[in-house]
Amino acid sequence: MGTGAYGGAQFYSIAITLVVVVAIVVARNSRPRRLRLEAMWIRPVIILALVALTVIAAPPPATLVSIALITLALVVGVGLGWLRGSLMRIEVHPETHDISARASPIGMLFILAVFGLRMYLRTEGTMTPIVGLSPSTIADALILLAGGMLTVSNLEMWLRARRLLGEAQAAKATGGSTPIVS
Questions:
Q1: pLDDT tens for residues 65-102?
Q2: Rounded Cα gap, residues 146 and 4, in angstroms
Q3: How would you classify the pairing of strands 99-102 and 180-181?
Q4: Domain coordinates in residue numbering, the chain
Q5: How many CB atoms sit inside 10 A of residue 143's CB?
Q6: Average pLDDT value for residue range 165-170
Q7: How far is CA 144 from CA 28, 31, 54, 131, 167, in A?
Q8: pTM higher than 0.90 for the full model?
């Protein structure tokens, strides 16, 4: 710990808070929740705005290494987001066409771990740079990774839910009554 006893106490309070938040989020996401296709654009817009404000508020140094790390983090975040979105279980009720989704607890734990690591790196501002990267650059890369992941996972879910809803509507028109699940 670079900031002594206070930094350690601050880290532990952050860790305890994260454990409580993880427990709440995992419990909440273990139940299916209703998806509204028409409102699925709202969360990505909020996430992108928060990511942009976070990075703009304290921009990382513009070195070649930091730009490469930030770009890599964004690309990895997009890939992980597509994977996370495809792991979500989406179901369309055959009669009402209500769409529900069940989140993957592993995906939520990963997101919370990324934010926890970012908070830790921000509080340990006196850390020695790693391979020419400041802690703030690493923290911003983690934020971009999480932002890309959350935004793209929502996009993948929206595309799949829209396709499944179309299949359910076509099945109902032909007399089918089994739930459409993906």
A1: 888 988 999 999 999 899 888 888 888 888 888 898 88
A2: 29
A3: unpaired
A4: 4-29+39-181
A5: 22
A6: 86
A7: 25, 28, 10, 20, 34
A8: no
